[in-house]
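Supplementary Note 3. Input sequence used for the single-chain structure prediction.
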Amino acid sequence: MIAMRHGRATQAGAADRAIWLAAALAGLAALSYVLIGLGILGVGDLAASERPAGIVFAAAGGYLLGGLLILARRRWLWIVGAAINALVILVFLLGYQDRPAVLFSAGGLASKAAEILLEAVLLSLILTGVHRARRPV
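The predicted structure, written as discrete structure tokens, is reproduced below.
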């Protein structure tokens, strides 16, 4: 009986850590977009007309909101978030595949590193079903 309680507590602790990690990674992605928008993180040879501030700050807001929604522990939200995040990564890669200066810029690497790690953690949360794990009272 004690072993079962300990197993559940360990599972709940691991689930909580993964959820907080995903939320932190979403926050890091949001921060990277804010830094891009403020011109602190470079984005290669993109002209100002190719990177409207509205889109960059909308992406930051989306990742910030997504990070908060991760904490709701709803699997369907994680699935929607993972799908949107995968689309962001795919559009970036397809859109700039012929522009290595953008792909490998500080802004490109920082945002995509956070997004790729976020995708991995979200997929792990979705596939392991940790949304069911609760801390014992």
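Residues 2-132 form one domain. The longest helix spans residues 2-37.
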